[in-house]
């Protein structure tokens, strides 16, 4: 048994020989290693997300689009979004909400924390 385990773990140890990492010792932190691979799930692109969430969205130029603001009662389109980066801003003087990505958009609209908004978008 001892001999078998030595042969089995030899290549694994060599792989992490030069690195200061907790994974070098056998059976330690395996769960964390797997969790790190699974964590950054893909979010929807800003293009698809805003097309579904904002009504009356109309592309203008350079990837910017105008639509009705979901943060206040909007008759004239005053909400502008960037379809590449997800940045948004409301140009209305009574509102003035802004952010730099779709996670920020969801967290401000629904009153969620960053982590909750991100989880919402992963399932979106
Ligand atoms: Zn607004």
Describe the structure.
The protein has 124 residues and is of the alpha+beta class. It has 2 domains: 2-38, no CATH class; 46-123, Zinc finger, CHC2-typedomain (DNA Primase, Chain A). It is 40% helix and 14% strand. It has a 5-stranded antiparallel sheet with strand order 1-2-3-4-5, covered by helices on one side. A hairpin with a 5-residue loop joins strand 3 and strand 4. The longest helix is centred in the N-terminal third of the chain and has 14 residues, at 2-15. The protein is globular. The termini are far apart. The structure holds zinc ion.
Search tags:
5 helices; 14% strand; binds zinc ion; alpha+beta; 2 domains; 124 residues
Using the coordinates above, name the CATH class of the largest domain. Alpha Beta
Number of helices: 5
CATH topology annotation of the largest domain: DNA Primase, Chain A
Helix content: 40-55%
Shape, principal axes of CA atoms: globular
Main-sheet strand order equals 1-2-3-4-5
Question: Could you give the topology of this structure?
Answer:
Blueprint: H1 2-15, H2 30-38, H3 46-53, E1 58-61, E2 64-67, E3 79-82, E4 88-90, E5 98-99, H4 102-110, H5 114-123
Antiparallel strand pairs: 1-2, 2-3, 3-4, 4-5
Helix pairs in contact: 4-5
The structure holds zinc ion.
The site of zinc ion has 8 residues, from loops.
Question: TL;DR?
Answer:
The protein contains five helices and five strands, in the order H-H-H-E-E-E-E-E-H-H. With 124 residues, it is α+β, with helices and mostly antiparallel strands. It has a five-stranded antiparallel β-sheet, with helices on one face.
